Amino acid sequence: MSLKDIADLFLRVYLFLLEQNLPYLSSQFELTEKHFNIHMQDGARFFAYTTWAIMISLAIIIATHFFLDYISEPGWVGTAVLLAFGFVYMNITYVVIRRYIRKVPAPTNRHILLAVIIFLPPFIWTFASVEELSTTDVLIWVVLALGCGLGALYGNRAGIKARYEYIQALKEHQRKMEERQAAGKR
User: Fold this and answer.
1) How confident is the model over 99-122, as a mean pLDDT?
2) Nearest to 113 by CA among 26, 172, 41, 12
């Protein structure tokens, strides 16, 4: 496969995932006009985060793909490289999802889709670059999936906590502004 074929395949998968609304990932079951407006505003943020995450994920796999050869070596070197890939993708997923969930207007499960989208670039890259499927390739995919899954889990938890703190800070700021306005009217 050429690089153009890989990019075309990746773009098709990305567009397919975006076209699918994936209603089972949404925690909102009633779509009122208010919910529709919130989700439309959130859709632009989600698109921005997915684009950013894809670019970072793809840049990392392109810049470090030559390290994948070390994974098949026996001993600590292969294990260290494999764990490094897992930790890098776990950290990327954690950061992206924590930032996304922090300012999401309503509780959502879109972080799962975001984690899958982060997983896709290295998966497609490694799948397209193998001549013959081996257990090492499957091991890479499992570790990357585990890293993205753990990043999604802990990123969502941290994002919910950060969203609570963000809302409390906004309420405090609003209270201070109201006090200033009330003091200015006196």
Assistant:
1) 88
2) 26
Domain range enclosing 87: 3-185
Burial of 27 (0-12, 13-18, 19+ CB in 10 A): exposed
Q: Could you read off the pLDDT of 5-27 as tens digits, one per residue?
A: 766 666 666 656 555 544 434 44
User: For 108, what's the count of Cα atoms within 13 Å in the CB-facing half-sphere?
Assistant: 26
Query: Does 184 score more than 80 pLDDT?
Result: no
pLDDT at site 146: 96
Spatial contact of 110 and 39, defined as CB atoms under 8 Å apart: no
Q: What is the value of pTM for the model shown? A: 0.72
Phi-psi region of 168 (alpha: psi -120 to 50; beta: other; left: phi over 0): alpha
CA-to-CA distance for 73 and 67, rounded, in angstroms? 11
Q: What is the distance between the alpha carbons of residues 165 and 181, in angstroms, rounded to a whole number?
A: 24
Both structure tokens of 5: 């074929």
Domain count of the chain?
Answer: 1
- Closest to 79 (Cα-Cα) out of 6, 33, 136, 161: 136
